[in-house]
């Protein structure tokens, strides 16, 4: 029996870079839900899953699936769609040259998909304009590691974060963005107590601080000053490893001199970074005292106009102490996406060749061309993400293929991206989702296989290659991305180069390229999986997670690299890189005095195309919001839960206010997830500054000058509907899928006579029972079809007077007394089973804030464990433990 015929199939989570293993029950036929659990044999998670991973099996149903190819909104055959793709591609190249075409991919693609995309573009189409949303995620780490190590290599592994005596987390809300790794660290920290110091460096107090011994609320953009200060401090106290520096590195003196310029003393560092000197001193002392130190970072470092320098400032400190690639002692970059690392291995970025070969290294271009027998091999890097969409806007790129990503939402200055794509003569989108903001502007839509239907490999943050296995055949007419691109390659006339019939054939070629002329005598590359180049189909099916390099067939991979002090630069030594202070182009001024930081929430992934399909993932944060400090709120007459316009020179959003001291005064936070599909005005990419880092070309999504003002609607509404409806045309509209219905939060600037019902054509045929209190501006409508409740609309001039959402949603539970229900609803009372849960805290067991607070008070609960014992909250994935602890503290206080 093959692996995919078994009753349970081992596969990998589709979301973050932790790369957790999943055991999925093989679904019967077209099952709408697949049972999943954590794979106890997978080294990344050892059986754990977070809220997103646990709900993955609830996102495989067919809602909003793209089933068949479409051209200009009409269903066509695959043959017609691909004929159109190829003819538009060829005619664009003929008329305007290969530089006029581009492909924009995704860290969600499997390595095999990525490999074919890169080969097609760089070797056969003849354009290096292939970039990916990974550019927005970790390009600064790639650039920083290459500058320091001569290669894009993560030297350590997850175990190092557990072994460290001093763990420094910089710009990483690991509790929400890499939750399972965070749970692993939490367990070790609990066991080791004070023997393990955890330092969190972040402008905001996030849930990651739940395990911190020290929190440094740094001013955005000053990370390099802080780490330059650490370098100076280590040198001045003789904590550096002089022998290591002498034997294995270059550039130390110059970097130290530069560090002394920016960060001569703790006092100056503290002032520049907005920190207490004692706290800075404590951080430096702990790092110095503990040979086992790990510095882990994520988007807070990478997404910056000085992201590459920040990475090098961190790496300089590890080089100075020789703490690279040793157990519990290493720098460690946390990648955001499930296969950002796999993309880097196959050259998925515009400035890379495949298999860690480089444009700027003699013979590498020719080496790849020879291996691929490529007729149109590119010789120089192409356009990176922001440059690529700028070129589309200018009309220089006239054909773009967007694969498995949603740049109209995720790119900075996103309105401009939307306009550019709308004006582009040929936009092809391949995706498994039908309605996305990007699909809306596509000429050709190609249905791609989804997570449960894909087959291939991914690489996680610790270089571990895992199989993502197909659980069932692709739905509708959807096809794997590699198969779509291979067919295009064949139709372009390259039958042999794109003859792939299965992912293992692609994997073998990818592995063979990694080993191609990668041996003693030539300049070696560390990415080497040649031991897998002859892997059989059966062995590929059974491949267990393995960390590259895998140089020989019998190799079991390597957990750590670079520990021997041998690097991949011309000299074989690592480079110290001199790092100066960030000089931001766009800084706050009178018009835009606040700094906007964007990022992720706990239960959503990217632009919500998948996570919003699982009702339980929509409850923790159900509307787009802005977090702001009470002082900034008070000075603008903004109160908690009111609506706020966040504007920059690029655009604006309207979101719900969340007033919190976790945010520093002068700084605000808005999540990146909400798109035009789920909110009328919450797409924060339209506000974000499009400035990029000069080395990595990664956009700065953490530093946009903005202003806030209260948006005061004349009318508020809640619409609940049994089936989804188009977002009503009003200033504020957000949709939230719950277990029983679809809820829409509405607000309008003017108090229109007909209220929101005028925007609901879906219910024009329904009979309406209405309560209209004109004096108080309250209106309640029930929409019935054949005696069944299909929708409810509640309107008021006052947001607070709108009744409990959870109670209202329960009205859609079947088998209710309709007469009683109608009376209850029209009189403004919640339906059966009501009882306001409040904000959801535990997504795994659906436990709300009110239930937890009430249990704490009634039962005198004093610990997270006792809450878990009574309500189960926090006992599965553990992502909500910090919030339960905060509730315990607030009730206690
Ligand atoms: Fe998936 Fe969560 Fe694991 Fe990330 S931490 S891979 S989202 S289960």
Give me a quick take on this structure.
This protein has 893 residues and is an alpha/beta fold. The strands form eight sheets. Strands 5-4-16-15-14-6-7 form a seven-stranded mixed beta sheet, with helices on both faces.
Secondary-structure map:
Elements: E1 8-12, E2 21-25, E3 36-38, H1 51-54, E4 70-71, E5 74-75, H2 78-96, E6 101-105, H3 111-125, E7 130-132, H4 135-149, H5 158-163, E8 166-170, H6 174-177, H7 179-192, E9 197-201, E10 214-216, H8 223-236, H9 242-248, E11 249-250, H10 252-262, H11 266-273, H12 277-289, E12 293-297, H13 299-302, H14 307-320, E13 330-333, H15 340-345, H16 364-372, H17 385-394, E14 399-403, H18 407-410, H19 414-423, E15 426-431, E16 444-447, E17 456-459, E18 464-468, H20 481-491, H21 503-515, H22 537-542, E19 546-547, E20 574-575, E21 594-599, E22 625-628, H23 630-634, E23 643-647, E24 652-659, E25 667-671, E26 704-711, E27 715-721, E28 732-737, E29 742-748, E30 767-773, E31 778-785, E32 788-796, H24 805-809, H25 818-826, E33 840-842, E34 847-848, H26 849-859, H27 864-871, H28 881-892
The chain binds iron/sulfur cluster.
């Amino acid at each position: 029996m093959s692996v995919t015929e078994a009753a349970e199939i081992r596969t990998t989570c589709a979301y973050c870079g932790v790369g957790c293993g999943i055991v999925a029950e093989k679904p019967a036929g077209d099952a709408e839900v697949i049972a999943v659990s954590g794979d106890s044999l997978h080294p990344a998670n050892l059986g754990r899953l977070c809220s997103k991973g646990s709900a993955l099996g609830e996102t495989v149903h067919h809602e909003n699936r793209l089933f068949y190819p479409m051209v200009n909104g009409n269903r066509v055959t695959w043959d017609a769609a691909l004929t159109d793709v190829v003819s538009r591609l060829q005619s664009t190249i003929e008329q305007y040259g290969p530089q006029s075409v581009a492909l924009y991919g995704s860290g969600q693609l499997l390595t095999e998909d990525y490999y074919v995309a890169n080969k097609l573009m760089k070797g056969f189409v003849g354009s290096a304009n292939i970039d990916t949303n990974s550019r927005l995620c970790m390009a600064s780490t790639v650039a920083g590691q290459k500058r320091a190590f001569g290669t894009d290599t993560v030297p350590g592994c997850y175990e190092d974060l557990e072994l460290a005596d001093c763990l420094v987390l910089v710009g990483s809300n690991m509790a929400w963005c890499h939750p399972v790794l965070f749970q692993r660290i939490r367990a070790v920290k609990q066991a080791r107590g004070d023997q393990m110091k955890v330092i969190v460096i972040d402008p905001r107090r996030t849930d990651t601080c739940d395990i911190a011994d020290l929190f440094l609320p740094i001013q955005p953009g000053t990370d390099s000053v802080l780490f330059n200060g650490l370098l100076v401090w280590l040198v001045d106290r003789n904590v550096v490893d002089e022998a290591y520096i002498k034997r294995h590195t270059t550039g130390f003196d110059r970097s130290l001199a530069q560090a002394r310029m920016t960060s001569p003393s703790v006092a100056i560092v503290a002032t520049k970074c907005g920190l207490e000197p004692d706290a800075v001193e404590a951080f430096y002392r702990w790092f110095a005292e503990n040979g086992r130190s790990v510095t882990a970072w994520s988007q807070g470092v990478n997404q910056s106009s000085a992201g590459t320098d920040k990475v090098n400032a961190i790496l300089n400190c590890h080089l100075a102490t020789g703490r690279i690639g040793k157990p519990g002692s290493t720098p460690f970059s946390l990648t955001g996406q499930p296969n950002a690392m796999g993309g880097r291995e196959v050259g998925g970025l515009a400035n890379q060749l495949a298999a860690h070969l480089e444009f700027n290294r003699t013979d590498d271009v020719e080496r790849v061309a020879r291996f691929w027998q490529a007729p149109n091999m590119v010789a120089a890097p192409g356009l990176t993400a922001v440059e690529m969409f700028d070129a589309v806007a200018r009309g220089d790129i006239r054909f773009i293929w967007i694969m498995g990503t949603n740049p109209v939402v995720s790119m900075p200055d996103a309105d401009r991206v939307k306009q550019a794509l709308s004006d582009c003569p040929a936009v092809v989108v391949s995706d498994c989702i039908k309605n996305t903001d990007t699909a809306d502007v596509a000429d050709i839509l190609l249905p791609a296989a989804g997570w449960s239907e894909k087959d291939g490999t991914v690489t996680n943050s610790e270089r571990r290659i895992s199989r993502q296995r197909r659980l069932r055949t692709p739905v509708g007419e959807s096809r794997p991305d590699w198969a779509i691109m291979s067919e295009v390659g064949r139709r372009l006339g390259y039958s042999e180069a794109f003859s792939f019939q299965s992912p293992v054939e692609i994997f073998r070629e990818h592995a063979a390229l990694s080993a191609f002329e990668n041996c003693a005598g030539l300049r070696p590359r560390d990415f080497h999986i040649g031991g897998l180049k002859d892997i059989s189909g059966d062995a590929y099916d059974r491949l267990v997670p393995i960390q590259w390099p895998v140089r020989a067939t019998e190799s079991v991979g390597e957990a750590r690299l670079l520990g021997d002090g041998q690097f991949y630069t011309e000299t074989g030594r690592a480079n110290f890189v001199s790092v100066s202070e960030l000089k931001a182009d766009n800084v706050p001024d009178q018009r835009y005095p606040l700094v906007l930081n964007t990022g992720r929430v706990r239960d959503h992934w990217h632009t919500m195309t998948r996570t919003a399909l699982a009702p339980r993932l929509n409850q923790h944060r159900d509307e787009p919001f802005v977090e702001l400090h009470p002082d900034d709120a008070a000075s603008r007459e903004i109160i908690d839960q009111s609506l706020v316009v966040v504007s920059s020179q690029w655009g604006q959003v309207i979101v719900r206010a969340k007033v919190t001291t976790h945010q520093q005064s002068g700084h605000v936070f808005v999540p990146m997830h909400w798109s035009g599909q789920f909110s009328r005005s919450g797409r924060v990419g339209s506000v974000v500054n499009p400035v990029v880092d000069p080395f990595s070309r990664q956009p700065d999504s953490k530093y946009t000058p903005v202003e806030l003002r209260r948006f005061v609607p004349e009318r508020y509404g809640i619409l609940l509907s049994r089936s989804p409806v188009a977002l009503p045309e009003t200033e504020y509209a957000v949709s939230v899928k719950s277990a029983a219905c679809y809820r829409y939060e509405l607000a309008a600037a003017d108090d229109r006579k007909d209220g929101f019902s005028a925007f609901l054509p879906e219910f024009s045929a329904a009979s309406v029972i209405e309560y209209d209190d004109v004096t108080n501006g309250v209106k309640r409508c029930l929409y019935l079809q054949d005696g069944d409740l299909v929708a409810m609309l509640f309107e008021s001039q006052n947001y607070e007077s709108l009744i409990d959402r959870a109670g209202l949603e329960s009205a859609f539970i079947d088998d209710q007394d309709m007469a009683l229900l109608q009376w209850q609803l029209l009189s403004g009372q919640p339906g059966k089973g009501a009882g306001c849960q409040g904000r959801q805290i535990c997504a795994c067991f659906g436990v709300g804030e009110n239930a937890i607070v009430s249990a704490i008070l009634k039962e005198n609960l004093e610990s997270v464990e006792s809450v878990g014992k009574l309500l189960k909250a926090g006992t599965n994935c553990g992502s909500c433990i910090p919030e339960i602890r905060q509730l315990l503290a607030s009730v206690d206080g």
